[in-house]
Amino acid sequence: MPDFVKPLPGWDSTNMNIKLEKPAPTGAGTPSLWQRISRKIAEHTAGTTFAVVNPADGSEIAKVADLGASHARIAVDAAAPAQAAWAALSAKDRSSILRRWFDLIVAHELELGEILTREQGKPLAEARREVTFGANYVEWFAEEAKRAYGDVIPTALPTQRQIVVKQPVGIVGAITPWNFPSGMITRKAAPALAAGCAVILKPSEETPLSALALSCLADEAGIPAGVFQVITSSTAEDVAGVLTSDPRVRKISFTGSTRVGKLLMRQAADTVKRLSLELGGNAPFIVFDDADLDKAVACAVAAKFRNAGQTCVSANRFLVHTSIKEAFLEKFVAAVDGLRVSEGLDPSCDIGPMINATAKQKTIALVEDALARGAKRCTAQHTDRTGCFLDPVILSDVTVDMSIANTEIFGPVAPVIEFNTDEEAVQLANDTPYGLAAYFWTRDMSRAWSVSERLEAGMIGLNGNAISSAETPFGGIKESGLGREGSQYGLDDYLDIKYIAMGGI
């Protein structure tokens, strides 16, 4: 299958004080996960490659094959017969194979976390949590594979029976982002595979190594050739063009920007494909006057600064009641000024580098624009932040006409906006074309119900920020996307409903 990687001699460089070529925990003499990734290329002819870069220091980690439209067509050709055979397996057999994949991911959690940190930059502890988070989806859907129940519909005709069965959609084209290069793959692939679909995965060109590592473990688990393929490419539009236009591909699942999501919708329309789209966000974090400030601040730090603010459900706007604004800011600033910015393999790291220089400059531009228009910086600023590193920022006196209040920041910046009434808070929160996530803090149960029902978002975090897990439905409304990932609803997104009317009974 067309997934390959070429390691660089410096992969085990001592400047990171880490050595990835450890024996895997499956037995003495077992090749490390990186060694298995490296061996994949030996089975294929070398071609054009592109570099995978460590955002912490700009060094090349590896070179991977730069594949294009022709490789995508080969992948679809391979997936078509493989999908039919995979769908024909019993749900129990698919479940068993997925369970083995889960076990292997968990067994290689440290190696997978190290690879993820090297290519994406997030703290190693955070990367390891992402690996186990993603593994949970494989375990969940290994179980759900056996629960794609149909129905028998009562009929008015004694000679007829009416039956509903659920069948796999078919080949799925999955396109995943760089901010969660492991978790976003399993969240798409696990339900698709459980349902009986084949998956052709295009990971971000910034972070392809985690995808290749997962594919090695999928092979070892017994997922047949052609059922789970990885296409590494620096020209996503070429690969996406094949996946959206080929009628044999019946579904596209994409996580990324709203702009690209809209483009994929247009391209997929000609063959009327099913779509799952997790797109942009502009999540409000509302702190009402009766909130537990210590708990709200702790969750605010996690909701904003995890992965350097580079998550689709990051709190993007902090709406704080006027009466508690100063008290909240005092605690929030103290907590954020205590965060340590460093490379992700540093055990003391709280915030790693941003993914690239372009992302850093975009974030800086939003901060500078806000400051020029009257916002105030509340947090400390260091002068020695080189490369892709950026200090976390809290801005007060932000107004709704500033760009930072209306843009998905995707960086470690927390703009604080005041409000006076519940109605104003809800209006400010909903004043966006996006509707992915929203968070709010209150001890008033009447307000909890009322605000939850009025907020225009697919997911609500009430007095907490842990809104994503394998058993819950993840997804948005408005321009934040279509469909759900995780939970029983996530399996349904990869199943077609077939109604059978049986006569002559």
UniProtKB/TrEMBL annotation:
Membrane-spanning segments: none
Active site as annotated: E278
UniProt entry tagged with the keyword RNA-binding: no
All residue ranges annotated as the Aldehyde dehydrogenase domain in the record: 47-500
Superkingdom of origin: Bacteria
Listed InterPro entries: Ald_DH/histidinol_DH, Ald_DH_C, Ald_DH_CS_GLU, Ald_DH_N, Aldehyde_DH_dom, Aldehyde_DH_Superfamily
Alphabetically ordered keywords of this record: Oxidoreductase
Residues making up the signal peptide according to the UniProt record: none
PROSITE patterns named among the record's database cross-references: ALDEHYDE_DEHYDR_GLU
Pfam family for this entry, one: Aldedh
PANTHER family: SUCCINATE-SEMIALDEHYDE DEHYDROGENASE, MITOCHONDRIAL
Family: Belongs to the aldehyde dehydrogenase family.
Protein name listed in UniProt: NAD-dependent succinate-semialdehyde dehydrogenase
Record organism: Henriciella pelagia
Lineage: Bacteria, Pseudomonadati, Pseudomonadota, Alphaproteobacteria, Hyphomonadales
